Amino acid sequence: MKAVVYKEPFEVAVEDVERPGIHHPNDVIVRVTSTAICGSDLHMYEGRTAAEPGIVFGHENMGIIEELGDGVTSLRQGDRVVMPFNVACGFCMNCVEGYTGFCLTVNPGFAGGAYGYVAMGPWPGGQAEYLRVPYADFNCLKLPPGNENETDFILLADIFPTGYHGCELAQVRPGESVAVYGGGPVGLMAAYSALLRGAKKVFVVDRVTERLDKAREIGATPINFAEGDPVEQIKEQTEGVGTDKGVDAVGYQATVRDTGREEPATVLNSLIGTVRATGMLGVPGLYVPSDPGGPDEQSKHGMLSVAIGRLFEKGLKMGTGQCNVKRYNRYLRDMIIEGRATPSFVVSHELPLDQAPSAYEKFDQRIEGYTKVVLHP
Fold first, then answer.
1. Which has the least CB within 10 A, 142, 191, 207, 283?
2. Tens of pLDDT, residues 9-49
3. Phi, psi (deg, nearest 5) at residue 264
4. Is the full-model pTM beyond 0.85?
């Protein structure tokens, strides 16, 4: 089958790889109809992880079930399904408590597994024609048959729940103000989720015109950090107080406004300055314990210069960690079905699988309006 394979930094290729088969009675094989390129994939694409050549990318996947193991009970051949990027067993201590992003079974020695991602277990990705899904009764979310809302439903695999998770980590409530740093797909989903949760005012901080335009279209207030300190810009619009809540949708590859130099803690420190005393931060943006491309020795080992004293002084609270997709995906699916949510506004390009190398390059360079790419094998 055809699949997107990592070759070396800044290079992927569509190659023939072995088609997956049933290895356990709880497996299903899904014929992939949509799979998305995620900003997290770019960390591997750029050589900023320990990913080795040959890994098949793709953790945002949906499609049609073609084969089922004998132990699968709730699914049928022909079911249309979307899978959380988290691979989870459903029965370990963390899964039972709802922390499916930190499953203790699927990636021995590590809390958490995912498709097609370095150090996240032995699970090939779904930027391919077919995908093996383990513990399928637990991991597959059934969708209405047909192809309606395809580009909405694919976002249930990761970025829509992850954006919502950022708001959940920050405990965003109706009537509150929220600052979202990062106007990429997850940041836009966080802003959209904050508005769905009833926030009165949402700021989106970025410098990419297309992203800021998207933020404005959904009713958020764009803040271009290339035009001045975003902390001061937001405080000017909140009577000098700052926002009630904040979301970091950037992560460790953040850059300093004045020089463009990477400073992994700059967004966290900006949020500490932006959010009012006793407010709360949600941090779904990715931070890693090891970054080969870090700008200094400390950051290469995941040690960042965060203004912890200021965080403490202001009595701020912070929630972190990757999204437990199953905690949200059923509810968000139903909002899509009922017309209450249309997250596909972030999708800029739909392309065949064989155009993946070009799509990665353009998405990485933020050119030609590339904000979110969905591939169709």
1. 142
2. 999 999 999 999 999 999 999 999 999 999 999 989 998 88
3. -55, -25
4. yes
Half-sphere exposure (Cβ direction) of 280: Cα atoms closer than 13 Å: 13
Category of 78 on φ-ψ map: left (φ > 0), alpha (ψ -120 to 50) or beta = left
What is residue 104's three-state secondary structure?
A: coil
Assign 71 to helix, strand or coil: coil
- Distance between CA atoms of 43 and 39, rounded to whole angstroms? 7
Q: Which residues lie across from 118 on neighbouring strands?
A: none
The tokens describing 327, both together, are 């905690």
CB 133 within 8 A of CB 118: no
The residues, ordered by sequence, that sit 6+ positions from 45 with a Cβ below 8 Å of its Cβ are 6, 9, 10, 12, 57, 360, 364
Whether the CB-CB separation of 42 and 105 falls below 8 Å is answered with no
Q: What count of other Cβ atoms lies within 10 Å of the Cβ of residue 319?
A: 16
Q: Is the dihedral of CA 356, 362, 366, 371 positive or negative?
A: negative
Distance between CA atoms of 217 and 37, rounded to whole angstroms? 23
What helix, strand, coil percent values describe the chain, rounded to 5? 30, 25, 45
Integer Cα distance of 88 and 324 in angstroms: 10
CA–CA distances in Å: residue 163 to residues 8, 98, 193, 204, 371: 30, 17, 7, 13, 15
**Residue 172 — pLDDT band, cuts 50, 70, 90?**
very high
Q: How many CA atoms lie within 13 A of 114 on its CB side?
A: 26
Structural contact between residues 85 and 100, judged by C-beta atoms closer than 8 angstroms: no
